């Protein structure tokens, strides 16, 4: 099976986000052939080069999203009219005053259809004539936007759009629609794959959407963070007109992507709720948790006795969203109950903001917990220590987690808590705040308290510190849960299953032609529709229980 | 872990409407939001989850956000004032860089005056190289720099160099070619066998600074017009006079510089041809920095080819039987002067580009700024 993997700013670039996941996927599913279609986000990334690629990758095609390649095509009158028609339609849909993501089951709203038609019209124009980049920047585009904003029935915020707002929207749309101008939509490009797997939503999934339109290639969308939500959070200072038009664009693009996708795989329930909210059909959604490599944590997980019984450990990147201040205040209350307790904060700052926050936290810790010595002749030390992995303290994250009896997480904002899952893999009892996907990850195998509530946090920690047996029980349960749900193997096998299901439901039927160009009857035998390679006995899709040695059913009755 | 006890603690006794307190706390977010999903995203960023939303009698954050969106007063809110446009400030860096080509050009001319023979050749070569590098640096930064997302075209630069070369050597060559010369290579003086016209080139090199200032002025004015105009028609109508004004300003600066350099160097001021060439190059650069690379390239190429052809006809007429070829250029040169040819070609080209620029640069789409990647 040939899979077109669509990524943005991640695989195969060095240090791209989500690169590790894609790499594991490609290496794990080595029975399939992968073609990577990647967008790079900036020049530095392009210069940094690629990670070493496994041999199963057939081809890699990349396109920069940060630079426009103007092909110098100037539209004639007919092409210009075609462009103006489709772009005007797109602008009219964006300005129309309806909620793009009205909840609940409903028939396809006419706006969604208009949006899809306009998008497809622009894509076809780019494929037939080229020159879309220049056209999207042209006066025709800006005029179409202005007309749509001034039309009766437009959004209230859109009606207030001034010229700079129109220009900002036009520039953003030009950037967002750059994938339309790519030359990937050919018979030997995306037309040759059996399945498009988009590693993110939004603009990244746009080539998959077009491949679906041009060649009926099924589309699978994996989202660990919902693009629409990211979009809302990244431009808080733009004028209202710009924000409302762009929100409409991204909302409709997301809805259209979800509508066309064969399956949608959110990385956690939080992403899943956003997707449902944006119009994703529940029947298509399969939550696939991100996989973590369990091997480095195996040793720590097998030896719960290595933990110091009075040590709390916090591991992560230091930044304001982690709310270490609240943790320190909670620890002050813990110390009142358990004077022997110690807190290790392990992790470096992220960015200048994080560095400033770390300094603030260190000052607060020094203020709350003055150094104290055991006797009159020994040097004193505070109960709170700030360390970094690879420094004089722990060498690996596993060592960091293993040193504590309880692992704590005090964030106020969190996506999928990877650190918490690592702690679970180490078999440590955890206390965390109820944010993001924490409850979903931890299940019942750790204590969860409301965020910004030091007293509740302290009570939970003290109860665990005083009850070693409960700690061990919770830690073992957490490790079992993490090994069940959050390993690389489950992630890869889930995707493997989804791939097979998609291909079984929506196989790409290609018409094979003979030398003279006539269709060739019976060119594709029935066996070619069987998933996997039918001549290879080992790779036949068979349930694992059928492959194992049979267990005699009568043994229990003997 | 829903904690209703905590809710009771955080809301004052008798407060029957906990959402109101929340609305008050996130007032900015709710007032600026353009749809409920934006409020939902903002609330989640503040740590509000579905379990927190349950305390406000809501199923999830989305329905809570919808209530907040519906309840926030917005119709009577005055429209927010247009954000103050920050006009790009003049920076020290590019001001110095734009002065550099002129300074180096003056230094080269001084060196040519002071040296003789072989040394003069070396001085000329070094001077040309230095001026070219300085010009390149001046066009890389500041208001004359092209947009980063559009690849530069080498053709425009080489045609511009050709036109400048013609301004330096062409008039002399044309003058001598009409009378049967030239009998030797240029020797770097205005009196020799193939005289050089240095003053226009020095004036144009010095005009880099006014050109940058004019482009800066145009950008600042356009930015202000963008912020203040409500419609596209409105904007176009108000930008056209600004463009013409800036152009006239630049031409005035070139005329002043040329008069000064001609007086200093003791050459007759070739005002029309220099003004035409300066105006042409300025417009070509203006169009290029706004992303219109096609028209300048074509126009510059046509102008340069026209000048070359005119020169070539003079020499081709020396072949037996081809006398008639030289007639148009000879008539032109004798009726006016050798400078009539560049004046005519560059002037026509500049006029065409001016008409083109007044249409394209007056459009709002010419001033789309490339979006910063996020």
TrEMBL record, chain A:
Molecular function terms, GO-annotated: glycosyltransferase activity
InterPro entries noted in UniProt: DUF3492
Region Disordered, annotated ranges: 538-558
DUF3492 domain segment(s): 1-282
Keyword Transferase included in the entry's annotation: yes
Pfam families: DUF3492, Glyco_trans_1_4
Name of the molecule in the record: D-inositol 3-phosphate glycosyltransferase
Automatic annotation (TrEMBL), chain B:
Residues making up the signal peptide according to the UniProt record: none
Residue ranges of the TM segments: 94-115, 121-139, 159-178, 198-220, 241-264, 270-287, 299-319, 339-362
Keyword list, A-Z: Membrane, Transmembrane, Transmembrane helix
The name this protein goes by in its record: Integral membrane protein
Organism: Streptomyces heliomycini
């Amino acid at each position: 099976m040939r899979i077109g993997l669509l990524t943005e700013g991640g695989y195969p670039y060095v240090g791209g986000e989500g690169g590790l996941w894609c790499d594991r996927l490609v290496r794990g599913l080595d029975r399939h052939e992968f073609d990577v279609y990647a967008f790079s986000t900036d020049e530095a990334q392009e210069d940094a080069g690629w990670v070493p690629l496994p041999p199963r990758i057939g081809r890699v095609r990349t396109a920069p999203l940060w630079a426009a390649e103007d092909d110098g095509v100037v539209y004639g009158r007919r092409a210009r009219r075609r462009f103006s028609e489709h772009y005007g339609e797109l602008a009219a849909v964006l300005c129309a005053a309806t909620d793009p993501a009205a909840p609940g089951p409903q028939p396809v709203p006419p706006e969604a259809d208009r949006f899809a038609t306009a998008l497809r019209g622009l894509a076809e124009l780019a494929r037939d004539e080229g020159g879309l980049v220049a056209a999207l920047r042209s006066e025709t585009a800006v005029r179409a936007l202005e007309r749509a904003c001034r039309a009766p029935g437009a959004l209230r915020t859109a009606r207030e759009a001034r010229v700079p707002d129109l220009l900002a929207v036009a520039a953003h749309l030009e950037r967002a629609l750059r994938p339309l101008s790519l030359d990937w939509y050919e018979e030997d490009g995306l037309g040759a794959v059996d399945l498009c797997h988009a590693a993110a939503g939004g603009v990244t999934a746009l080539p998959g959407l077009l491949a679906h339109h041009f060649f009926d290639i099924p589309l699978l969308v994996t989202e660990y963070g919902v693009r629409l939500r990211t979009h809302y959070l990244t431009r808080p200072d733009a004028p209202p007109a710009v924000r409302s038009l762009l929100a409409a664009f991204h909302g409709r693009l997301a809805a259209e992507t979800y509508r066309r996708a064969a399956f949608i795989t959110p990385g956690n329930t939080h992403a899943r709720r956003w997707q449902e909210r944006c119009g994703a059909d529940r029947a298509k959604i399969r939550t696939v948790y991100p996989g973590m490599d369990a091997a480095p944590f195996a040793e720590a997980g097998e030896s719960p006795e290595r933990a110091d019984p009075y040590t709390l450990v916090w591991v992560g990147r230091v930044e304001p969203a982690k709310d270490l201040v609240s943790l320190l205040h909670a620890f002050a209350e813990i110390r009142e109950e358990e004077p022997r307790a110690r807190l290790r904060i392990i992790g470096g700052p992220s960015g200048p903001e994080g560095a400033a926050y770390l300094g603030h936290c260190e000052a607060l810790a020094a203020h709350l917990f003055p150094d104290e010595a055991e006797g009159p002749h020994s040097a004193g030390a505070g109960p709170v220590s700030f360390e970094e992995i690879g420094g004089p303290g722990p060498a690996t994250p596993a060592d960091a987690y293993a040193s504590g009896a309880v692992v704590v997480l005090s964030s106020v904002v969190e996506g999928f808590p990877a650190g918490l899952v690592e702690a679970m893999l180490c078999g440590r009892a955890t206390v965390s705040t109820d944010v993001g996907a924490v409850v979903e990850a931890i299940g019942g195998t750790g204590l969860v308290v409301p965020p910004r509530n030091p007293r509740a946090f302290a009570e939970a920690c003290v109860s665990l510190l005083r009850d070693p047996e409960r700690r061990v029980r919770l830690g073992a349960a957490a490790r079992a849960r993490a090994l069940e749900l959050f390993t690389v193997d489950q992630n890869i096998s889930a995707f493997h299953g989804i791939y097979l299901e998609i291909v079984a439901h929506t196989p790409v039927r290609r018409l094979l032609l003979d030398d003279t160009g006539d269709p060739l009857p019976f060119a594709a035998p029935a066996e070619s529709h069987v998933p996997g390679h039918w001549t290879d006995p080992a790779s036949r899709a068979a349930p694992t229980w059928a492959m194992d040695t049979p267990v005699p059913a009568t043994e229990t009755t003997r | 872990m829903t904690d209703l006890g905590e809710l009771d603690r955080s809301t004052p006794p008798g407060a029957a409407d906990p959402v109101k307190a929340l609305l008050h706390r996130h007032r900015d977010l709710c007032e600026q939001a353009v749809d409920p999903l934006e409020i939902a995203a903002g609330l989640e960023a503040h740590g509000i989850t579905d379990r927190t939303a349950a305390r406000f009698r809501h199923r999830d954050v989305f329905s809570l956000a919808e209530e907040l969106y519906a309840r926030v007063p917005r119709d009577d809110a005055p429209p927010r004032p247009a954000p103050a446009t920050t006009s790009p400030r003049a920076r020290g860096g590019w001001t110095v860089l734009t002065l550099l080509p002129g300074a180096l050009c003056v230094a080269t001319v001084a060196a040519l005056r002071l040296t003789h023979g072989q040394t003069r050749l070396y001085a000329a070569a070094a001077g040309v190289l230095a001026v070219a590098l300085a010009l390149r640096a001046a066009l890389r930064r500041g208001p004359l720099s092209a947009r980063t997302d559009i690849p530069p075209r080498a053709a425009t630069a080489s045609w511009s160099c050709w036109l400048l070369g013609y301004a330096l050597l062409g008039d002399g060559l044309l003058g001598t070619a009409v009378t049967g010369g030239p009998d030797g290579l240029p020797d770097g003086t205005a009196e020799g066998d193939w005289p050089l016209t240095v003053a226009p080139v020095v004036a144009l090199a010095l005009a880099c600074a006014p050109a940058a200032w004019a482009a800066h002025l145009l950008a600042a004015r356009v930015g202000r017009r963008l912020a203040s105009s409500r419609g596209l028609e409105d904007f176009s109508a108000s930008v056209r006079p600004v463009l013409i004004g800036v152009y006239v300003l630049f031409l005035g600066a070139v005329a002043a510089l040329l008069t000064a350099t001609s007086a200093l160097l003791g050459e007759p001021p070739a005002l029309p041809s220099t003004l035409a060439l300066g105006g042409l190059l300025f417009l070509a650069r203006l169009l290029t920095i706004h992303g219109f690379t096609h028209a300048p390239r074509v126009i510059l190429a046509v102008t340069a080819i026209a000048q070359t052809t005119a020169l070539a006809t003079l020499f081709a007429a020396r072949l037996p039987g081809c006398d008639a070829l030289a007639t148009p250029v000879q008539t032109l040169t004798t009726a006016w002067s050798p400078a009539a040819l560049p004046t005519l070609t560059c002037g026509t080209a500049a006029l065409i580009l001016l008409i083109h620029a007044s249409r394209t640069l007056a459009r709002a789409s010419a001033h789309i700024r490339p979006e910063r990647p996020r």
